[in-house]
Each structure stands twice: as structure tokens, then as C-alpha cells.
Design goal:
Length: about 450
């Protein structure tokens, strides 16, 4: 066993109580959490996010694959079935057509005509492209995994083709995101410069719903929501035509974390192509172009930086995990990886009680209670554990794993936590955390990240 065999927390008064919550008990609770959120074709993230989400769905599928692989297949089948005709896999699928307790809902997006003829309405942007990784994992758990791969592979190819065609128009090997929501790491301080760099015109009235679920102080401020919403309004006005959006969108950012996940997904695609005896030339070219783009254009002095295409500037004012997530996906050289780990140490990411804070405690924008500006998240810890393990930094991976486990033992499956106290700072009953727990518990030997076999 890699990390789950011994849970060694510091010996305070609740240690005995915590150690009594065994992995077996947590596994049962994680399964109950997923079972309770199953909606017949997909998983509701939780009460705050009552729909199917872009990168959450592949994470969820990996959790389901550990005990109900048929549901894992359905999770991804229902997501891939809502692919747009241009290949895009949307950030949100509103399966029952209702906004419910979420803003922005289908009325604000008005993206329905693009969502496929019989499909449910969707939002009109993307999230990190982890689907190929989910598909590969789920196929391993299915008795007829090859059939699933055959069904999914052309859809995955269309998805990656969309990203390279529409989001890398100059062939830099790096795809851009056009909204902070597309990064998945929505409120990192790194995006502030680009998000606040444009004139805001009148925004038609809207009502936030997120702060009805979670205390205001944990969520992005209203001035951020105004800009998030203004970008949505621009996409709608351009009728989701990517060229028109590109010409009129003040937020166009090459995010290294997004591109790193794309690298990892390309590696999964290569592997799937080989399993199906198909040519892997296209995903191989993509992998080479993006990993080289990351190394040559976005790396400097121990970390990766985002590039703002609109303002033609590197976003180097802040220090956040975005700069290190490329350890996942295999782009950095070994030397770069070593410098990244040295820098992670120097920037205090391992100094908080629970690693890894999403923004460095040394950054002036660090806020241990604010969405993506300090709290510890399961999503980012999972990526970093995998990336660090791939490059042989097992001790650091283990310390992140141990802290994550302790947070679950103390507080259950939450969206994110204060990196010092461990108190939940986001939504509760968070299915993705439960799924990632199940995935790690089953695959605790941390195999190499999606390396082509
Ligand atoms: C916007 C669903 C999603 C995650 C994101 C996380 C949060 C949404 C929001 O929740 O974003 O997509 O309304 O804040 O930032 O990573 O996919 O869990």
C-alpha cells in the first residue's frame, strides 16, 4: 500500500477518534455519497451545483469505476452525448432543462441551439479536458471495455480537434481559455489582471445563487461575478461562433494547468488508439506540440506561467498552484521538475498544516477562506499527487495524500478547506471529493500518469 496503509496524524486529542475511522468506513461513506447523488444517467455534484459538470464528470467516473463500473460508463456516455456539433464538450449540462439553484442557467447562456438536436441545454464554454483519462480508466473496469473505447474514441478525437482548431488558431501548441470558469481554478489571483483589464458596459440584471449555499466570504466577490457574467453575455451575443468570440473577447489566456491536463489526455488518447489498433499519429502530434509549447513558452525559473493573448503579456504577478500543475501530464523535463519542487518548498506550499494551498501563503492575494485563493482542494491535490509521483517525489506526494485523508476523516467530503484549521470553506456533501477518495484508495500505488503503455 502506498499511502493509505498508515494514517499518521499528529497526536492530538482527536487522533484516536480519527484513526477509528478506517479506510473501510470511509469507502462505505464515499459510496453512499455517490449512490445518494445518482440521478439515473449522471451524478449531481451536490446541492450547490445540481447539474453535470465538465471536469467533475471524468473524476466522478473514476470513483464509480471502483465499485459500479456501469454507472461510470453512463456518467461519461451522458456527457459525451451532449457534445456540440463543433466537437466542444460543455462546462455544464442542464439535464432537466432547469437552472435550479444555480446561476447562470440555460436562459442566460441561450446556448441550446448548439447543444445537439435532442440534447439538454448546456452552458457555452469548456472545462479541463480530462474525458480521455476517464474513458481509459472506466474501460479497464468494464467487461466490454473495448466496446466502450470504440464508442468513445471518435468523440474524444472530435473534442481534442475542436480545442486545437478553435483554441489554438496560430498553431502554438497551446490552447487558450476564454473565461476563468474554463480553467476549473476559477478564482485564482492570476486571472485578475486579465479579468479586470477591460471596460465593463451595462450588464442586464442577474441574481447570484451560489452565495445562498455558501457564506459570501468564501465565494468570489460581486465585482468578479459582474465580469464572469459580462463574458457570458458576449459569448451569447456572438452566438457561440468561436472566431467572432476570439475577435471580441478580452479574456484569452493560455493556462499552463489546462494545457498540462490536455497533455495527459492526449497520452490517454494515444493509449486508447493503440488498444484499438488505430493510428495514434494525431494525438502523438498533439502531445508533442503541447508539451513542447509548455516547456518552451510558458516555463521560467521553477514554474509555469499563463500567457494573456489579448494583452500579449505573461501573467506573472501571482504565485499559485497553476504554475506547478504541469507536473501532471509529463511536459516538464526532469530538471524543470526538480526546480519546480524546490520552488514549491521555497514558496511555502508545504508550510501550512494541510497541503497544498491553492495560492501560496506568500502571495499578497492569499486568503485561506476564499475560493481558490488559499483553500485546499481535492481536484488540485489529486493532480499534484499524480504529477509529483510521476517524477519520483513520493515523499511530497505522500504528505499531501496524508493531509487530504485527515481532512476527510475530520470533516467528511467537502469541496475545499482552510489550509491551517482544516475547516470546510466551500460546499459540503461534495461528490467529487468522495470519488477522488475512492480512486486513490483503489489505486494507491500511484501508477505513472497515463503514460502510453
Ligand atoms: C463554475 C463544479 C465546479 C467545478 C469548478 C469550481 C466550481 C463553478 C462555480 O464548481 O465552479 O464552473 O459556480 O463556481 O471552481 O472547478 O468544476 O464542481
Amino acid at each position: 500500500m502506498f499511502l493509505f496503509s498508515k494514517v499518521r496524524a499528529s497526536h492530538d486529542s482527536s487522533t484516536a477518534e480519527r484513526e477509528a475511522i478506517t479506510i473501510t468506513t470511509l469507502t462505505e461513506r464515499a459510496r453512499e455519497t455517490l449512490n445518494g447523488a445518482w440521478l439515473g444517467t449522471h451524478t449531481k455534484i451536490n446541492e450547490m451545483y445540481p447539474h453535470q459538470w465538465g471536469w467533475d464528470a471524468p473524476f466522478l467516473s473514476m470513483g464509480w469505476a471502483t465499485f459500479k463500473p456501469e454507472r461510470a460508463r453512463q456518467e461519461l456516455t451522458s456527457q459525451l452525448s451532449h457534445q456540440w456539433s463543433n466537437g466542444m464538450i460543455p462546462q455544464i449540462i442542464f439535464h432537466d432543462g432547469e437552472a435550479r439553484q444555480y446561476f447562470p442557467g440555460p436562459e442566460r447562456w441561450q446556448a441550446h441551439p448548439h447543444s445537439g438536436q435532442d440534447g439538454a441545454p448546456t452552458s457555452g464554454c469548456v472545462q479541463p479536458p480530462l474525458q480521455a483519462i476517464g474513458v481509459r480508466r472506466v474501460a479497464q473496469a468494464l467487461p466490454d471495455g473495448r466496446d466502450f473505447l470504440k464508442w468513445a474514441y471518435p468523440r474524444l478525437l472530435q473534442w481534442h480537434r475542436y480545442l486545437y482548431r478553435e483554441r489554438d488558431p496560430d498553431g502554438r501548441g497551446l490552447v487558450y481559455v476564454r473565461h476563468p470558469w474554463e480553467t476549473g481554478l476559477d478564482n485564482l489571483p492570476d486571472w485578475d489582471g486579465s479579468l479586470f483589464g477591460f471596460e465593463l458596459s451595462d450588464i442586464p440584471a442577474y441574481e447570484r445563487k451560489d452565495n445562498q449555499h455558501v457564506d459570501d466570504r468564501h465565494r468570489p466577490d460581486n465585482e468578479y461575478y459582474d465580469r464572469y457574467t459580462a463574458l457570458v453575455d458576449r459569448f451569447r451575443a456572438a452566438d457561440y461562433d468561436e472566431a467572432a468570440i476570439r475577435n471580441n473577447c478580452p479574456f484569452l489566456v493560455e493556462d499552463p494547468a489546462y494545457n498540462a491536463m490536455l497533455c495527459a489526455a492526449n497520452r490517454a488518447l494515444i493509449d486508447i488508439a493503440r488498444q484499438l489498433d488505430r493510428s495514434a499519429t494525431e494525438p502523438e502530434q498533439w502531445f508533442r506540440a503541447t508539451s513542447q509549447g509548455l516547456r518552451d513558452q510558458l516555463y521560467d525559473n521553477g514554474r509555469f506561467y499563463a500567457y494573456d493573448r489579448y494583452n500579449e503579456t505573461m501573467l506573472d504577478d501571482h504565485e499559485s498552484l497553476m504554475g506547478y500543475i504541469p507536473l501532471f501530464g509529463g511536459a516538464p523535463t526532469d530538471r524543470q521538475a526538480q526546480s519546480m519542487v524546490d520552488r514549491l518548498d521555497a514558496m511555502g506550499y508545504f508550510d501550512t498544516r494541510y497541503a497544498l494551498p491553492t495560492t501560496s501563503p506568500d502571495d499578497p492575494a492569499f486568503d485561506p477562506e476564499k475560493y481558490w485563493r488559499g483553500p485546499v482542494w481535492g481536484f488540485t491535490n489529486w493532480l499534484m499527487i499524480r504529477g509529483l509521483s510521476d517524477y519520483g517525489f513520493h515523499d511530497r506526494a505522500r504528505s499531501i495524500e496524508q493531509g487530504s485523508l485527515e481532512l476527510i476523516q475530520r470533516h467528511g467530503f467537502c469541496e475545499n478547506h482552510h489550509p491551517q484549521s482544516g475547516e470546510p470553506t466551500g460546499a459540503k456533501g461534495f461528490t467529487v471529493t468522495a470519488a477522488l477518495f475512492l480512486e486513490r484508495a483503489q489505486n494507491n500505488s500511484c501508477p505513472k500518469t497515463d503514460a502510453p503503455s
